[in-house]
Amino acid sequence: MENLWNEVIPYWNDEFIEADETAPRKPTITAYPASSNGAVIIFPGGGYAMRAEHEGAGYAEWFQSIGITSFVVDYRVAPYKHPAPMCDAQRAVRLVRSMSDKYGFDNNKIAVMGSSAGGHLAACLSVHYMDKFYESTDDIDSADCRPNAAILCYPVIDMFEYRHDGSRQNIIGERAFGEDKEYMSLYKHVTRETPQTFIWHTAEDSTVPVENSLLYAGALSAAHIPFELHIYPFGHHGLGLASEVPHTAQWAASLESWLKLIKFV
């Protein structure tokens, strides 16, 4: 584990105390090295209120087991709001890109992955990577922060009809302005430059409705962006590797196959 930032952390507030006192005070990144052509940067879910370990280290250990290098980011959550998490996400891609020689992967094969609110952050980076949220803090910040691929697991995408109230409140506020909700409804901002994407969800997810994934997939299709979408019939929200729902657990094997297809392995 190492600090995500050096001396300067944009939007840092010493008065903010993490709800989870065991979590690091400052944003960190943890490497899980393997031998692969590409690398995956993981943003755990948790409604922008926490970071779920099974959607962070749990995924990273699985990636290691199949020979893929990954990195888990402990990005800022509530009481921080946008743009602090997005700053951490952009920095993570830039930092990982700078470490490609050290870990032996192609710096043009970097995927971002997130579950639930972490999926929102990964998708936000996929569509808003070009927006400048902070001034450069060191040489690392000169690197490109556009991901080459995205992996979205039951992601939060919409801030309107199909929103997840907790995520919306924590990232932009309970009474967010219309333009903020529009900006953070990520399917509305997909372009020809949005990276290729793997998405999975369950039809019976009652926390983050499956329409979130369908809206994003529809926008990718309209923009002619390659994507793979899996909707499984059963399983509650936050399944992670979904070992307790064997049929849904097939998503991991499909992801491995997709990563081989796009030559990350």
What does this structure look like?
The chain is α/β, with parallel strands linked by helices and 265 residues long. It has one domain (2-261): Rossmann fold (3-Layer(aba) Sandwich), CATH 3.40.50.1820. The protein contains 8 helices and 8 strands, in the order βββαβααβαβααβαβα. An 8-stranded mixed beta sheet has the order 1-2-4-3-5-6-7-8, sandwiched between helices. Helix 7 links the parallel strand 7 (196-202) and strand 8. It is globular, with a radius of gyration of 17 Å. It starts with a strand and ends with a helix.
Number of contiguous helices: 8
CATH domain class name: Alpha Beta
User: What fraction of the residues are assigned to beta strands by DSSP?
Assistant: 15-25%
The helix fraction, in percent, is 25-40%
- Main-sheet strand order equals 1-2-4-3-5-6-7-8
- Write the element-wise H/E pattern from the N-terminal end onward: EEEHEHHEHEHHEHEH
Which helices and strands occur, and which strands form pairs?
Blueprint: E1 2-3, E2 28-32, E3 39-43, H1 57-65, E4 69-74, H2 84-98, H3 100-103, E5 110-115, H4 117-128, E6 149-153, H5 165-172, H6 178-184, E7 196-202, H7 211-222, E8 227-232, H8 250-261
Helix pairs in contact: 2-4
